[in-house]
Design a protein that fits this description.
321 residues, mainly beta, Jelly Rolls, eight-stranded antiparallel sheet, seven-stranded antiparallel sheet
Length: 321
């Protein structure tokens, strides 16, 4: 998925200087951002208060939207570098095309994982015809320096491992949780899981104390470590936890995101992740001149032009603003 903000602002984030080394309960509110022709997303990362959770650097939550009479998601071809995109649906269907030639229809509880490496471009659209409702999350994972210049690739996993306990099922999207390991490729120690809870369920989820965590509420009302978290909001939990108490007031679903604090500082602008302003500027120029990022074939429309870079130089801001 693309960041369609025409006033894209570069930011430097990452590094361990602002990692919360102990458990906290920091509720993050979203910023509403239009996406394509008829979709609005709730952006949780980067946030005014926090920019990363482990290597997770970008989190959008959208829907549930009734798109029966609408085009639904329509994101034209656009570039990515230095990151992985994670597409996760609860309802609907999204058609993914990319410059490696991949074409995949991503459906609920299936993992669409695109590793951009040095450069890739892709489009995302609701197919015609499409299901009535669209509800999901789009997330980015920053690649470490050792992996960010690799060849691009796309993975589509329809069978993911799950951890179950009375009243809760945890589908492991990326990384590992309680011994279950996702087939999706990761390049830093990471956890991404979709937790489905039945109304009245209480559980204590095992965590890695060396990871920092956050919980994104998808539906229903869940009390996360005694904090009520409603759909479209995210609770940052810090590090140092060995378990996480959960209680569902009704049938609910949340996403657990975590990982070792990301050591490297990154510059994230528009849909590109690099290390310097010059690197981002070179990538933007390559996209605008039609080089390096390849071609998305089969999309009925024009490519997405890049916004203008700001005139001011980048300033380090760390993991929090």
């Amino acid at each position: 998925m693309s960041n369609l903000d025409r006033q894209a602002v570069p930011s430097r984030c990452g590094g361990r200087g602002f990692v919360v080394a102990e458990p906290v309960r920091e509720l993050l509110s979203p910023r509403r951002v239009p996406l394509g022709e008829s979709t609005e997303v709730r952006r949780l990362l980067p946030n005014l208060g926090r920019r990363m959770v482990g290597a997770w650097a970008f989190v959008d939550h959208y829907g549930p939207d009734d798109i029966a009479g609408e085009p639904g998601m329509q994101v034209p071809p656009h570039p990515h570098m230095g990151l992985q995109t994670v597409s996760w649906l609860h309802e609907g269907e999204v058609l993914h095309r990319d410059s490696t030639g991949s074409l995949a229809a991503i459906r609920p509880r299936e993992l669409g994982l695109m590793t951009s490496g040095r450069a890739i471009s892709h489009s995302e659209e609701s197919p015609v015809p499409h299901p009535r409702f669209l509800h999901g999350a789009q997330l980015w994972v920053a690649l470490p320096d050792s992996a960010r210049h690799t060849e691009p690739r796309f993975e589509h996993h329809t069978d993911l491992p799950a951890v179950t306990a009375p009243g809760i099922t945890a589908t492991v999207i990326l990384g590992a949780l309680d011994g279950a390991v996702s087939p999706g490729a990761v390049h830093t120690p990471l956890t991404g899981a979709d937790l489905t809870l039945t109304g009245g369920a209480e559980a204590r989820l095992p965590l890695d104390p060396d990871f920092e965590y956050a919980v994104l509420a998808m539906s229903g009302e869940t009390h996360v470590d005694s904090v009520p978290v409603l759909p479209g909001s995210m609770l940052y939990l810090g590090c140092g936890r060995t378990e996480l108490p959960l209680r569902a007031e009704s049938d609910a679903s949340v996403m657990l995101l975590g990982g070792e604090p990301f050591d490297e500082e990154i510059v994230m602008w528009w849909n590109l992740v690099g290390r310097t302003h010059d690197e981002i500027a070179e990538a933007r120029e390559a996209w605008m001149t039609g080089t390096r990022f390849g071609e998305v074939k089969g999309y009925a429309g024009d490519r997405l032009p890049a916004p203008e870079l700001p005139a001011t130089p980048l300033k380090p801001r760390g993991r929090v603003r």
